[in-house]
Amino acid sequence: MQTTWAYISNYSIYSAMAVFALSFLAHAFETAWAVRSPELADSAIGNTLTRTFDYTRTERAARIATAMMVLGFLFLFAGVIARGISNGHVPWGNMYEFSITGALAFTGAYLIALRKHDLRWLGLFVSIAVLLTLGTAITLLYRDSAPLVPALKSTWLVIHVVAAIISGGVFLLANVIAGAFLYLDSMEKRGDRKPWAKRLPSLETLDQLSYRLVAFVFPLWTFSVIAGAIWAESAWGRYWGWDPKETWAFITWVAYAAYLHARVTIGWRGRRAAWLCLFAGSTFLFNYVYVNVWGTGKHTYSGL
After folding, report:
1. What is the pTM of this model?
2. Paired strand residues for 44
3. 65 vs 28: CA distance, rounded Å
4. CA 290 vs CA 97, 149, 224, 282, 284: distances in Å
5. Which end of the chain is more exposed for a tag (fewer CB within 10 A), N or C?
6. In whole angstroms, what separates CA 131 from the centre of its chain?
7. How many other C-beta atoms lie within 10 A of the C-beta of residue 51?
């Protein structure tokens, strides 16, 4: 029975990848075929017509892309649940399981934010990131279903890891938006935006959205760090031991706290805030990738 659920999980992940690939292609088609020819432009300055993008021509492709993103999320959700059933425990025992659940959280954060903000332009980048994560998971990180190591057999596994995964998904979405801000800001400093970039939100909107995402999820990350310390005391008899993963989780907390402090008290906006947001996100990714795979200590559960 467990083997059957393991196969269901694998096929669900493969199906999710196929659907995310279709979403990527639909997003790419939307951008590539939305060019509005110069002779149809509405305004002219001197002898030069303003070239713009008309996305009404590819509205159907955009809707298909979003629908595929939702369907991919559902397949991925089914894959994570089936993996947990095949294991007989929550599916967070190694890097493969962390990766597929992290991709699920990242996609979920994007889809939830999409309901309140016009973020469809991010779909192309989200689908690429998810495909790369899942591709790496199934080719390099895959491990068969297995029981948990003794240190992970705790209720705190659910509490701590759920908080960490949700926080990571929202942090990464905020960092993608901060990266888009820096790119568009550099474009505007060289002159006007390129035609395809005129569709994207203003720099002020991107700056505020990135900040709101971090401010929203930072308390959850704080809770995750505290929950990890409580779990460590239960498992190893000490709250904090400066294990590499503990240390980098704290560094990430400090970096995002500095970002929020700089915005609220010092008034940082724009490029400086975006760079600080990206720095904080890089500490999270370093902890997730390098420390999990090559680090040493009590948190080496990658299974590699």
Report:
1. 0.84
2. 49
3. 9
4. 16, 21, 20, 11, 10
5. N
6. 12
7. 15
pLDDT in tens, 22-62: 999 998 887 777 655 444 444 444 444 445 555 666 778 88
Cα 161 from Cα 228, distance rounded (Å):
9
Rounded (10°) CA dihedral 13, 15, 17, 20? -130
Return the H-helix or E-strand segment holding 77. helix 59-87
Distance from C-alpha of 207 to C-alpha of 76, rounded to nearest angstrom: 30
Cβ atoms of 273 and 207 closer than 8 Å:
yes
Per residue in 221-246, pLDDT (tens digit) is 999 999 988 888 887 788 888 888 88
What does the alpha-carbon distance between residue 245 and residue 299 come to, in Å, rounded to a whole number? 6
DSSP 8-state assignment for residue 303 = -
CA–CA distance, 188 with 270 (Å, rounded to integer): 13
Kindly list the distances between the CA atom of residue 109 and the CA atoms of 6, 174, 267, 270, in Å, as whole numbers in the listed order: 26, 10, 27, 23
